[in-house]
Amino acid sequence: MQQRPCLREFPILKTERLMLRSLAPEDQAGVFAIYSNPEVTRFCDVATLANQQQASVLIQVFQAEVEKDGGIRWAITQKGSPRLIGLCGVGWYRHNASALLSYDLNQDYWNRGIMTEAVQAVVRYVFDQAGTNRITATTTVDNTASMHVLLHAGFQEEGILREWGLWKGEFKDLRCFSLLRKDTPAAGPSNRSAAGLANSCGGQESGDCTRPLASAKAGFAANPAAPCGWDGTRPPTLIH
Ligand SMILES: CC(C)(COP(=O)(O)OP(=O)(O)OC[C@H]1O[C@@H](n2cnc3c(N)ncnc32)[C@H](O)[C@@H]1OP(=O)(O)O)[C@@H](O)C(=O)NCCC(=O)NCCS
Questions:
Q1: What are the start-end ranges of the H helices in 75-164?
Q2: Looking at residues 206-229, what average pLDDT do you find?
Q3: 80 vs 92: CA distance, rounded Å
Q4: Cα(65)–Cα(148) distance, rounded to whole angstroms?
Q5: Domain boundaries, given as residue ranges, for the chain
Q6: Is the domain covering 13-222 a CATH 3.10.450.50 domain?
Q7: In a mutational test of the pocket of ligand 1, which residue from 100, 111, 136 has the highest number of ligand atoms less than 8 Å from its CB?
Q8: SS3 25
Q9: Which of 37-51, 160-174, 192-206, 226-240 has the lowest mean pLDDT?
């Protein structure tokens, strides 16, 4: 079945300090500042950008994903400033009502709780407005900052996906995390059937996403008994 774009209005998310909005061509410099930094690209499947034109192409790739309703990617800004300082988004896996989360932040803004705040807003949107049942996220095994972000947002570690990543010609072990709707009591019950979930749009509403999640600020101990639940498909086009 052919998919049609269904985000009639891009969902703007607001938190205490941040506004998450749609990406625009004017974000080229902000995107370049993030992905021209090897300290960022060592943790994601994006080649280090060499020039602004490549940033422009990356924005077009991200926007195309939104337009074909393959996912949503927000530009993270600080309230009162239009400057993009980070990106956070999800790709939809409609066959099992799940989403794959990814994010990257300009290094100048690290360790201020910004991505934790952004991810909590995105998680709330994904459960409340998009009717998703499961959010998956992966990190390289050495990405402590990203693991902290996920654990603060209530994700559980499921185990290591051995050499699951093929990034820039190199296989990477990836640590798999998940958050289920039922893990977040604050998330409202889905008003969609399972079949409806599998075909749901991203939703159109914006909102205040400052409601606290049931946060599991747990340690990093993996639960080896927990299966990863990974469905064996690779992200379609989202760059992680
Ligand atoms: C991962 C990333 C998005 C985190 O963004 P951020 O806004 O700095 O994250 P936060 O400030 O919300 O939280 C970072 C946490 O990691 C901790 N942390 C950061 N660097 C760390 C390190 N080297 N060792 C241990 N802990 C570290 C911080 O102390 C904080 O934890 P705390 O709140 O428990 O103290 C950012 O570091 C980044 O963009 N990294 C490069 C790209 C990347 O890794 N993307 C994600 C791919 S999975």
A1: 114-128, 144-152
A2: 29
A3: 30
A4: 27
A5: 13-222
A6: no
A7: 111
A8: helix
A9: 226-240
pLDDT tens by residue, 40-85: 999 999 999 999 999 999 999 999 999 999 999 999 999 999 999 9
Residues in the chain: 240
Ligand 1 lining (C-beta closer than 6 Å): 40, 43-44, 103-105, 110-116, 139, 143-146, 148-149
- Residue pLDDT, tens place only, 176-206: 999 999 998 766 555 443 433 333 333 333 4
For the question of whether the overall pTM of this predicted structure is more than 0.70, the answer is yes
What token pair was written down for 58? 């990356």
- Report how far ligand 1's centroid is from the alpha carbon of 148 (Å): 6
16 three-class SS: coil
Amino acid at residue number 41: T
**Residue 99 identity:** A
The answer to whether the CB of 78 falls within 8 A of the CB of 108 is no
CA distance 72 to 185: 24
Closest CA to 100 of 226, 237, 214: 237
Contacts of 190 (CB under 8 A, 6+ apart): 131, 133, 181, 197
Do the Cβ atoms of 127 and 184 come closer than 8 Å?
A: yes
3-state SS, residue 214: coil
